[in-house]
């Protein structure tokens, strides 16, 4: 009887121990710890059993199938002047192009074919779009390469505005000649009938100043001193006369006379020659 009782007691004890071990193993699994066994099991690699995380892994963002926006192209530079424009700014443009040998004729103040060709050549030489139009980029590049033109660079071929007439020109019939503005006004009783650009003698053969009168007219005159033609000559002081000059028409203020008053507009001086009379007053002033 005792032996049987002891057996039951030992059996229950072993059963309880086995239950404890089983419970420990279960806790180990639930807690994610490493379980190591004795004997042969010790030589095996430890096994870690982990529960899946309660937080789902974030899904990767889907690729953006929208095409990337294209960059906005830069606006072309603003055009300052182009064919047909007129004015002082065009004279300055032409004078600067002339300084660097892209234009050979003197400034006219009109953006013509020659000016457009010169601008196009300047642009092409410097890798700029060859439009023939003067835009802001072209103008700034030209400014850096040239100097500020002087007054007579701008009006090399004439076209300058005339200054106010001298007080001595306001009565009667007068050839009113200004050395300051290099202009001649043909005036009758204070009214300007014709105004033309003129050229004077050099420092070695200066044009005389003062009040004179026309004493002789010669339509096809040739200088006996220089053997040069002086058409439409109107003499007012010794050998000095107002007359047409083909050299002035061709080279502008790059040259000078031998003391005469040169006119480059042949049609204008022909009209003036027909109206001026011997005895009409001539005033040469600053």
Automatic annotation (TrEMBL):
Ranges in a coiled coil: none
SUPFAM superfamilies referenced in this protein's UniProt entry, alphabetically: L,D-transpeptidase catalytic domain-like, PGBD-like
Chain residue ranges for the region called Disordered: 39-85
GO molecular function: peptidoglycan L,D-transpeptidase activity; transferase activity
Domain L,D-TPase catalytic, residue spans: 173-285
Keyword entries, A-Z: Cell shape, Cell wall biogenesis/degradation, Peptidoglycan synthesis, Transferase
Pfam families according to UniProt: PG_binding_1, YkuD
PANTHER family in the record: EXPORTED PROTEIN, L,D-TRANSPEPTIDASE
Protein name: L,D-transpeptidase family protein
């Amino acid at each position: 009887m005792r032996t049987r009782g002891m057996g039951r007691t030992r059996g229950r004890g072993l059963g309880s121990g086995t239950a404890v071990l089983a419970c420990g193993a279960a806790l180990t699994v639930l807690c994610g710890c490493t379980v190591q066994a004795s004997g042969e099991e010790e030589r095996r690699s430890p096994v870690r059993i982990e529960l899946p995380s309660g937080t789902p892994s974030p899904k990767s963002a889907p690729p953006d199938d929208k095409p990337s926006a294209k960059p906005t192209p830069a606006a072309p530079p603003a055009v300052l002047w182009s064919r047909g424009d007129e004015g002082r700014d065009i004279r300055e443009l032409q004078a600067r192009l002339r300084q660097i040998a892209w234009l050979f004729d003197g400034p006219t103040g009109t953006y013509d074919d020659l000016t457009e060709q010169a601008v196009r050549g300047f642009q092409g030489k410097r890798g700029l779009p060859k439009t023939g139009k003067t835009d802001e980029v072209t103008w700034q590049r030209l400014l850096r390469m040239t100097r500020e033109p002087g007054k007579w660079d701008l009006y090399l071929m004439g076209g300058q505005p005339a200054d106010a007439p001298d007080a001595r020109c306001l009565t009667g019939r007068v050839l009113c000649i200004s050395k300051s503005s290099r202009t001649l006004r043909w005036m009758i009783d204070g009214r300007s009938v014709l105004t033309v650009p003129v050229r004077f003698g050099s420092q070695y053969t200066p044009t005389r100043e003062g009040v004179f009168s026309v004493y002789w007219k010669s339509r096809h005159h040739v200088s006996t001193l220089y053997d040069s033609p002086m058409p439409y000559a109107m003499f007012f002081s010794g050998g000095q006369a107002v007359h047409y000059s083909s050299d002035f028409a061709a080279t502008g203020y790059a040259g000078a006379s031998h003391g005469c008053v040169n006119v480059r507009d042949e049609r204008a001086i022909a009209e003036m020659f027909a109206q001026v009379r011997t005895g009409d007053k001539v005033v040469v002033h600053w």
